Amino acid sequence: MANAGIQLLGFTLAFLGFIGSIASTIMVEWKASSYAGDNIITAQAMYEGLWKSCASQSTGQVQCKVYDSLLQLPGIVQGTRGLMLSSILLCFISILVDMVGMRCTTCMADQPEQKDKVALAGGVIFIIAGVLALAGTSWYGHRIAADFYNPFTPTNSRYEFGSALFVGWGAASLIIIGGSFLCCNCSGKDSGKSPRYPASRSAGQPGKDYV
Length: 211
Hints:
Elements: H1 4-26, E1 31-33, E2 44-48, E3 52-57, E4 62-66, H2 75-101, H3 112-148, E5 159-161, H4 163-184
Antiparallel strand pairs: 1-2, 1-5, 2-3, 3-4
Helix pairs in contact: 1-2, 1-3, 1-4, 2-3, 3-4
């Protein structure tokens, strides 16, 4: 039978990753202006996210601008949006599934084997969601690094990893770990069943009569 404590731990980790992925998606600091070089003007800091870009002045004033057109966005932004939103949607579905399949809930209590299979399915969905979030953040981070080390990129147009990327990486890791706990904690095929033994032949079975 599945361990309810390990299931609850995995669900908690995955749920925290779900919250982190939402926070990462809506954060604006996916990439921040770099201060590498000698001729960088530090009077303002530029930040770009999946939904808007912001400029922070040295006086503390912050001005943000939402992206006007979806079709004019770079492919990296559109692709990362899709991956992160898909991850959030799958996490939400997995939460609903695992609320039915975990041992600490009363749903399907009279069918323990089916209940464990439902929890296993929820764990698999969590892992898929974590992989999507990890793919989106890693893809975006790879593009930032490629542009930063590109010698043709102007010095004042280079960006570095923003805090949203680190939040996204941490959230994806929590989702994958939590889903793995839910998958590895499923019960075996014979759990809850009494072992079967072959029928033994009776010791007092009469022998054959010889004439």
